[in-house]
Design a protein that fits this description.
With about 290 residues, this protein is an alpha/beta fold. The chain folds into 2 domains: about 160 residues, Rossmann fold; about 90 residues, Conserved Hypothetical Protein Ylqf, Chain: A, domain 2. It has 11 helices and 6 strands. It has a 6-stranded mixed β-sheet, with helices on both faces. Strand 1, helix 2 and strand 2 form a beta-alpha-beta unit. The longest helix has 21 residues. The C terminus is likely disordered.
Length: about 290
Amino acid sequence: MNIQWYPGHMAKAKRNIRNDLKLVDMVIELLDARCPDSSRNPDIDSFAKDKARIVLLNKADLADSRSSRAFSEEFRSKGIYSMEMDARSKASFKKLDSLISLAARPVVERNAAKGIRTPVIRAMVLGIPNVGKSTFINSFIGKGAARTGNKPGVTRGNQWISLNDKVQLLDTPGITWPKFEREIVGMNLALIGSINDDILNTEELVFYLLKYLMRYYPETLEKRYGQSMQGFEEALPAFDEIARLRACLKKGGEIDYVRAARLILDDFRSGRLGRITLEHPRNEKESAG
């Protein structure tokens, strides 16, 4: 299943973002901690290269913590400030506030050398659809200033939000890019809900997920569905077994793959399958294959 998704409004949103970059000092990029590589819009590196940068691995509560730490360290090694977080929790926002001040220091010092006072740091918040940008902003400022939703495309226009007397955030619509060069990118983005479900073959998507889980996280399936998957060498028999265990059956006992696929996909997206990362940091990729 070769998934591509780039609705027309995203091209316009991308143009607006490029134009608005001249208004900001910093770019805060949100990634999904379950697939940091796949959820990185490659366009951001090119049009934000001259800005102070922070990369946040959001939804870290749903991801494998060891992999998340490795990904954060990878970004820091490239000179990009990074941390893992759960945008629904207040626990990490104090650390983030300090990180913003640290990342903004070169901007403030550069402006001061030119005799320019920088009373407010303006930061653009970027990310693909459904990565949690609006939830991040709402949690950070403590009120519902940015609309939230669990479907891609909720934020359609840019919004300025005053975080405090020192920082202003520019919320932007989630955008993907015109073509995913690797098939796995489309699959991972579909799994985390960044692509419209209406264009997906859910059964095929879940079949791919099961193959991955059986290789890297077999214990999560056993814990959730109460049946060891160790005896299954292929994903289809495992799919059948989970469907039977969860009574996803049609009349006559035939397996209802549509219903079973939706159940398994929802279990993954909600975290009921446990903390799972869909790809590996570069220092683990060679061993992961």
